[in-house]
UniProtKB/TrEMBL annotation:
Domain HPt, chain residue ranges per copy: 844-941
The protein's name: histidine kinase
Kinase keyword on record: yes
Domain Histidine kinase: residue ranges: 318-536
Membrane topology: Multi-pass membrane protein
Keywords assigned: ATP-binding, Cell membrane, Coiled coil, Kinase, Membrane, Nucleotide-binding, Phosphoprotein, Transferase, Transmembrane, Transmembrane helix, Two-component regulatory system
Source organism, top-level taxon: Bacteria
Major enzyme class: transferase
Catalytic activity: ATP + protein L-histidine = ADP + protein N-phospho-L-histidine
Region span, Disordered: 1-25
Residues with Phosphohistidine modification: 883
């Protein structure tokens, strides 16, 4: 059986492709040598004719000998019967005795007759006729007959596999009397064998004659073709003077003439080519001489420009690092000091210091971005993104700044917006950050709605409109005129903090071929409008639309803007939203619904109804849950949720942070309405503070203020902190002690953070310690470099308490085992290795993120298909599915799933290739369960992770811009 061709990767230099290999192998199977063709067409007719003649002659001889034998038998029987009847004068018994003594003995002397018998049918005591052998010469016949079988029949021949007999009745007798002569069958079989032997000898003689004739023809043809092959090889090597001799055969003579004509034409073309080549080389030499001087001048100019750009970039990076490092201590300790007991005057002073530091940090960020735009080094990315998700993430970062001025950031995402677009998510997030920060600076006491609407759409392009509205409570007429002037053709030379952020946003929008405008609104503030063209992502599959048909949810929120946002989203999911704005009358309203059997399926209660009285708010929620069995979701700011979390976490089904995102709302609804939620393996719970076992963290920084700040922030989370001032000291502490996490400063004298991390990774065995980078360089290239160097995550200076808490919780969740027996699992490869993902993607974070996201997106379908094929026993389909999943794992940093799929694939390979060997059932079942376990673990991990932030694709943001 021919094997299917296997595709091989092509080597870099002049190697045939896979299709060419397949073509060659197919050609080898179909081609035949001239010798084989001549043998086939010369010997085949002769052999076939000889076989047919041999068979025909043999069959004819067999027929003739059989007929001769039968005719002799019939003649002998008739002669014996006639002789018996000629002696009628004697009694029957005397004739039989005479026949037995003379004539029958004489018949047996012939070679053709085996035996002779004479039967007579006599009646027995019951009057039934039975044959009795009255005379016999020779052995008994192989086949006997009864009287009933022969009674009334004429003379005939009986033949079967055992014997050949001639049966003839005696005439004129009163009784049933028969004469049987059994013929000797080997008589004609031996003659048949002799004829067959003669035919076989003739067949061999014919085959030898045909073979000699075929060899002579093939040798003659091969010699002729060999001469033509040698001539063509010489012409192909450039010997155009080679000529082929003529032949006596007409066709071969014509072929010789054509080959000689081809050689003449090639010789002429070669001469013309050489002349043209010499002329072209002469012209090129003259052109190169004239271009050499220009290239030298351009190279000098280019080196000078690159040097200037490098000096400028180095200066900006060093300046940013040197300023961010002390700012980290100033902002951090100011926040810590504000949590202590200080009087009103001291608190005002501290707030002034904090705002000034944050303003300086914002100015540094804007200068860096502005310098990139001014130098033309801004390169836009084109990667898949979700614009609504980008907006929600930005507002969640800026929300604490808004809460300080009693402002709520409310995102409105058009349901018609496709789930995936192509754009630059980092730059779009920077546009959102600058515009929303400007709106926060101009507003107070209210809400800032941010709306995304779809204006128009084509097959491959989408035009979206982004609107941001402020109430102008903290912006005077002069400030609004300055903001509008920034969008004119002649912006002012001196720009404030707001002006620089708005200018950067305008430059980014223009780089994306969009438009930014500012208009006055009815509230006395400004409306910022951005129009952006985005390409549609046609390669992404459509996201399944979530639906909660028939579900009634009561929204308890005094803010009509947030009620509108959540109500629109619930209506889009086919749920029925009910609104209630007064928390004081909430219990009576629920009691009235209880009496009329009109209870909603769930309640979404905002912490704003507490009005600062959280004791009453907590008791009200407990009353609703205990007395009316309400399914409650609490939403609010992170600070408010923290105040009621410990008390209500056993009664409330979900806590929803504001600004409310679509994914967060969906997760909360699935917890509150499990009958509407899709089945999904339960994800691991995030460990709550204080920790079950107090973690130990190593903080490494050469700046004393930063070490002290990190110590205070970590101790506030019930974490034991050990500090180190250099890479050498950190390495010694790590060798002597165990740490659950390390915060590593990158730029240090002597052994820097990257070198220290490399030493730790080289000496690490078993459990992998997460190392978080502390750096003031926040560029995408810097983040990619850190992750590929072995660090697991990064924090940009200045480090905020929120970022630190989120990072600690996330990495403690990944690495801290919830049960003692899990320690063995954690000693193996990591579930997800970001550094390996970047290495496989050639240090391209966008590509690494997309590859990991595509793998995670198909895990649910892969798990279902693997389970179905395993239950059906479809080994072929199971091998193909596991092989495809393993191929996807080879491009992502998922070592545990990659190893599991590889093991299962190797066990399935013998079955898939139909080899007699079979995989061990216990090993096969264990490998299959391991793959399912790793798929579920990876899905649980992905449910609570932000891939943008893990791969360094989140743009730098300032919490108080």
């Amino acid at each position: 059986m021919a094997h299917a061709p296997q595709s091989n990767s092509s080597p870099p230099a002049e190697a045939p492709s896979a299709s060419q290999h397949r073509g060659k192998r197919t050609g080898f199977r179909r081609r035949m040598s001239l010798r084989a063709i001549l043998f086939r067409y010369t010997m085949s007719p002769a052999l076939i004719l000889a076989v047919l003649l041999c068979l025909l002659f043999t069959l004819q001889q067999m027929t003739d000998r059989r007929d001769l034998l039968l005719s002799h038998g019939r003649a002998s029987a008739e002669q014996l019967v006639e002789l018996i009847h000629l002696s009628d004068d004697y009694s029957f018994e005397d004739r039989i005795r005479w026949l037995d003594k003379s004539l029958m003995a004489l018949m047996l002397e012939r070679d053709m007759i085996r035996s002779v018998q004479l039967y007579r049918a006599d009646r027995d005591a019951q009057g039934k006729e039975e044959f009795k052998l009255i005379s016999s010469v020779g052995p008994r016949p192989r086949t006997a007959f009864t009287a009933e079988q022969l009674k009334g029949k004429q003379a005939h021949i009986y033949e079967d596999l055992k014997s050949l007999q001639v049966l003839h009745p005696l005439r004129g007798e009163d009784t049933n009397c028969w004469l049987t002569i059994e013929l000797h069958r080997p008589y004609f079989l031996v003659g048949t064998y002799q004829v067959a032997l003669v035919g076989l000898v003739g067949l061999i003689v014919c085959a030898l004659i045909a073979l000699v004739w075929a060899v002579a023809l093939s040798e003659r043809a091969s010699h002729s073709l060999e001469r033509y092959k040698d001539s063509l090889r010489a012409i192909g090597q450039g010997k155009f003077n080679t000529r082929t001799p003529s032949s006596n055969n007409v066709e071969l003579a014509q072929l010789s003439e054509e080959i000689n004509l081809m050689a003449d034409n090639l010789a002429e073309y070669h001469r013309d080519y050489q002349e043209g080549l010499h002329q072209s080389m002469e012209d090129l030499r003259q052109s190169l001489d004239s271009m050499e001087e220009q290239n030298i001048e351009l190279e000098l100019a280019r080196k000078k420009a690159l040097e200037n750009s490098r000096v400028k970039s180095t200066f900006l990076a060093n300046t940013s690092h040197e300023i961010r490092t002390p700012l980290n201590g100033i902002i951090g300790f100011t926040n810590l000091l504000l949590k202590t007991e200080v009087d009103q005057l001291q608190q005002d002073y501290l707030q002034t210091i904090l705002r000034s530091s944050e303003s300086l940090l914002t100015t540094i960020n804007d200068i860096l971005d502005f310098s990139r735009i001014e130098s033309g080094n801004l390169v836009l990315d084109h990667s898949p993104m979700n614009l609504g998700q980008v907006l929600e993430e930005t507002l969640q970062i800026l929300a604490p700044y808004g809460y300080e001025h009693n402002l709520e950031l409310v995102p409105f995402v058009d349901p018609q917006l496709p789930p995936s677009q192509i754009g630059d998510p980092l730059r779009i997030k920077q546009i959102f950050t600058n515009l929303v920060s400007t709106a926060i600076r101009c507003s107070e006491n209210g809400s800032i709605p941010v709306r995304i609407t779809v204006q128009s759409g084509k097959e491959s392009e989408l035009m979206v409109r982004i609107g941001i509205v402020d109430n102008g409570a903290r912006c005077d007429d002069q400030g609004r005129r300055e903001l509008k002037q920034l969008l004119s053709s002649n912006p002012p030379q001196q720009m404030t903090n707001n002006g620089m952020g708005l200018g950067i946003a305008r430059s980014l929008v223009q780089s994306m071929n969009g438009e930014l405008t500012i208009e006055d609104n009815d509230q006395g503030g400004c409306s910022y409008w951005v129009q952006l063209p985005l390409a549609l992502d046609r390669n992404r599959t459509a996201v399944t639309r979530e639906q909660f048909p028939g579900c009634r949810l009561l929204l308890v929120d005094p803010n009509p803007m947030t009620r509108q946002q959540i109500g629109q989203q619930l209506a889009h999911w086919q749920a029925e939203p009910l609104e209630h704005s007064d928390g004081e009358y909430l219990v009576p309203a629920i009691e009235q619904m209880w009496r009329h059997d009109a209870m909603p399926d769930a309640l979404i209660i905002d912490t704003a109804v507490a009005g600062g009285d959280f004791d009453t708010f907590i008791s009200t929620v407990q009353q609703l849950v205990d007395n009316f069995q309400c399914r409650v979701i609490i939403q609010g700011s992170p600070v408010d949720l923290r105040r009621c979390y410990d008390t209500l976490r056993t009664r409330v089904l979900a806590f929803l942070g504001k600004p409310v995102s679509r994914d967060g709302l969906l997760r909360a609804l699935k917890r509150a309405l499990p009958h509407q939620a899709q089945s999904r393996p339960p994800s691991g719970s995030v460990p709550s503070l204080p920790w079950p076992a107090k973690p130990r963290v190593l903080a490494v920084d050469d700046y004393e203020a930063n070490r002290l700040l990190m110590s205070e922030l970590l101790r506030a989370q019930n974490i034991e902190v050990v500090v180190a001032s250099s890479g050498e000291e950190a390495l010694e502490l790590w060798r002597d002690q165990h740490f659950d996490m390390i915060f590593m400063d990158i730029q240090m004298p002597g052994m820097d953070g990257i070198a220290t991390t490399g030493k730790i990774r080289d000496e690490e065995t078993g459990h992998r310690t997460p190392i978080i980078a502390l750096t003031a360089h926040v560029g995408t290239e810097e983040k990619s470099r850190l992750l590929s160097a072995g660090l697991d995550d990064y924090l940009s200076k200045p480090v905020s308490e929120t970022q630190l808490t989120h990072t600690v919780k996330r990495w403690m969740e990944v690495y801290t085992p919830s049960e003692p027996e899990q320690l063995v699992t954690l000693a193996g490869p990591r579930l997800v290795d970001i550094g390996e993902s970047l290495s496989l993607a050639n240090q391209d974070p966008n590509l690494a993120r997309d590859l990991l996201r595509m793998l995670l997106k198909g895990l649910h379908e892969d798990e279902q298909e693997l389970s179905r094929m395993y239950q059906e026993g479809d080994c072929q389909g199971l091998f193909e599915r596991v092989h495809r999943l393993h191929g996807g794992c080879c491009y992502c940093g998922v070592p545990r799933l990659r190893a599991a799929t590889e093991q299962l694939q190797e066990l399935l390979r013998p079955i898939q290739e139909e080899v007699e060997a079979r995989a061990d059932s216990a090993a096969f079942e264990s490998a299959y369960e391991r793959v399912r376990k790793e798929i579920r673990s990876l899905r649980d991990w992905a449910a609570d992770q932000d891939l943008e932030m893990l791969f360094g694709l989140e743009p730098e943001t300032a919490p108080h811009r």
